TrEMBL record:
Gene Ontology MF annotations: isomerase activity
Record protein name field: Enoyl-CoA delta isomerase 1, mitochondrial
UniProt signal peptide: none
Species this protein is from: Echinops telfairi
Keyword terms of this UniProt record: Isomerase
Pfam family, one: ECH_1
Highest taxon listed in the record's lineage: Eukaryota
CDD domains: crotonase-like (cd06558)
Amino acid sequence: MALASRARALLPGARSWGAVLARVTAQRAMSHRVVVETDAAAGVAVMKFRNPPVNSLSLEMVTELVINLEKLENDKTVRGLIFTSESPGVFSSGLNLLDMYGRNPAHYAEYWKAVQELWLRLYQCPMVTVATINGACPAGGCLISMTCDYRVMADNPKYTIGLNETQLGIVAPFWFKDTLVNTIGYRASEISLQLGLLYPPAEALRVGIVDKVVPEDQVHSAALAVMAQWLAIPDHARQLTKAMLRKPTVDNLVRQRDADIQQFVSFISRDSIQKGLQMYLQMLKQKKA
Ligand SMILES: CC/C=C\C/C=C\C/C=C\C=C\CC(=O)SCCNC(=O)CCNC(=O)[C@H](O)C(C)(C)COP(=O)(O)OP(=O)(O)OC[C@H]1O[C@@H](n2cnc3c(N)ncnc32)[C@H](O)[C@@H]1OP(=O)(O)O
């Protein structure tokens, strides 16, 4: 029931329960953009991103993430959750530019509501969450990892992490900013967010946007070791502490969710922003060529 209501909230175009379930089932049947492997004995699940080519957070991917998260939260045997990319090289390229470019306002609103839902769920997740950053991690990818309790990054100078929105000519929403400030502090956020900085591992560790940098072949074992340390703490004490620390930031978005959606739709629909996104997409294509 809870799953269906979540799906209905995320898929407002669907008119009935049947339509909601048919749409979700169809999405699932088409592909699994998220793969979940659970070690019941250890009480740990690993959620792997599988949305080629670059794990962009498309509407479908975001919806699958939310549905899988809700399932895991309802599974009382799972106490810890690790996020990683199934294919090393790109953890996540962030929000899907094609969900923010050349679409209509209804689509932008639906997309933004889903992205909000994902952040709200992740930031308040009662499980211990660890991001195993085994590839590039810009913008929305960085946001996902910053919602986790701990971040382990592979020591590969090709991989960078940060909120680079300004480099695309867009403005990170206030709750992205809040998450960054909570992670690295105010002054570092002023520099990081205005310049749209992407940090390679050593700098990422120095600024505190990740907590540990390890050789690439040890990134998964390091994440498991961190998880074991966190799972040694009694759940109820850790969960209440996490909720207490994060509640003001969560409340800030919950209070103004609809206004935030409207602001996003009006901002992203501007000709100048659409033009900027078009140029950025072209730049990505040219870089490839
Ligand atoms: C006043 C304010 C009010 C409200 C706030 C309003 C608005 C705020 C809005 C939005 C916030 C957005 C946050 C985001 O997450 S935006 C996304 C930012 N992401 C990036 O900048 C990353 C871009 N990508 C890359 O840098 C690279 O692709 C890479 C390092 C991740 C991987 O490099 P590779 O060399 O391995 O791969 P590529 O050849 O570059 O890419 C392959 C393929 O994938 C396409 N692509 C890449 N990233 C994205 C993406 N995020 N979304 C969609 N598609 C993407 C790329 O174009 C290539 O496509 P083709 O194969 O050429 O078709």
